[in-house]
Amino acid sequence: MGTPMNPALLPSRTPLLSRTGWAAFLVALIVVCAVAPVLNLLVPPGSVFHLSDYGVGLVGRIMCYAICALAMDLIWGFTGILSLGHGLFFALGGYAMGMYLMRQIGLEGNYKSALPDFMVFLDWKELPWHWTFSDSFIATLFLIIAVPGLVAFVFGYFAFRSRIKGVYFSIITQAMTFAAMLLFFRNETGFGGNNGFTDFKRILEIPIATPAMRMTLFVLTGVTLLGFFLMARWLINSKFGRVLQAVRDAETRVMFSGYNPLGYKLTIWTISAMMCGVAGALYVPQVGIINPSEMSPANSIEIAIWAAVGGRATLIGPILGAFIVSGAKSWLTVAYPEFWLYFLGALFIGVTLFLPDGVVGLVRRLARSGRSRS
Q: CA triplet 367, 372, 374: central angle to 5 degrees?
């Protein structure tokens, strides 16, 4: 009979957030739920403190991107699996929401038909089978999570079971999202072809193009981002998260220790995909359109860039990276549109060469050097 382990030798349980972390989290929650709505809805447009509708839409979209960056950090930063196909899961969640929004148009389309306009144009007489539950908001919420999760689970099971890893896995995920994009471009698939879905009218019978609904979607997106951040912290601080990091650092040693990496990798891969699906569903009603271009390989690469710029394996870093890169993109594509792609490439190369730990790593090094000098 083995000797019982001394409790003093057991590692102490890591708190979900430090006191400073909880304070920052509370500030972020107040800003999202109270400060932003007041500045947008109550402060007069002529005031310097007014938050414009454009600003609400821009920040709302970037928060959706930040959810994707956080999902990428779980699979890449903490598990060591670089995916170049997460744009597919983002788009699948967006299409699930888009199908519901198209059904909400009702008879207000250009053709005054219960069918979406693109189906009437193509002379379809009835909805395809995969539109069966698209008029139910509850079913749509389920599909937003289930469809990306199922696709990720099936793909991940065969990929991880075959022990595909490294650059080969990245290339396969990129091929997967490119193949899906070509499929969704076809009119006969019933997803609107090249134009996708647009001209949304309402959600839950509430007009979508109103300041109140716009702010509701903004707050919901912010709360979801903060909730996913806490969930990610809980996962990474748990035994499950420690095994993920061990798989990242030395998968063979993990196997020799009696753990099967397949289940751990498949679980975090599926969770990451479902998070992207939720982000896509929140994104679509805020931008008013979803089409196959959201599945382009460039979008998936951009998600990886957000994580790299902010700092992998930090959770907060990819969120900051999404805001930094997307904010710069919004400004550069207006001021210097011809230089945006050059800037993005130079940024990625510069971070890879000089900031391997991203912005968060740079801040930490500067803080340590400041303490050592003092």
A: 95
Is residue 64 over pLDDT 80? yes
The answer to whether the CB of 295 falls within 8 A of the CB of 181 is: yes
d(CA 140, CA 188): 22
Neighbouring C-beta atoms of residue 259, cutoff 10 Å: 15
Specify the pLDDT at position 2: 47
Which structure tokens are listed for 154?
């099936």
- Longest Cα pair distance anywhere in the chain, in angstroms? 78
100/279 Cα distance (integer angstroms): 16
Per-residue model confidence as pLDDT tens digits over 8-51: 454 566 789 999 999 999 999 999 999 999 999 999 998 999 99
Q: What is the pLDDT of residues 359-370, one digit of tens each?
A: 998 888 888 887
Q: With contact defined as beta carbons under 8 Å apart, do 291 and 197 qualify? A: yes
Q: Cα–chain-centroid distance for residue 106? A: 30
Amino acid in the structure at residue 225: L
From CA 286, how far away is CA 197, in angstroms rounded? 13
Tokens of 348: 């990625």
Q: Are 200 and 105 within 8 A, CB to CB?
A: yes
d(CA 245, CA 266): 14
Q: What pLDDT, on a 0 to 100 scale, did the predictor assign at position 362?
A: 86
Place of tokens 């968060």: 360
Task: Work out the angle between the directed axes of helices 316-335 and 358-373 (0-180°, nearest 10).
Answer: 110
- Determine if residue 186 is left, alpha or beta; phi over 0 gives left, psi from -120 to 50 gives alpha, anything else beta: beta
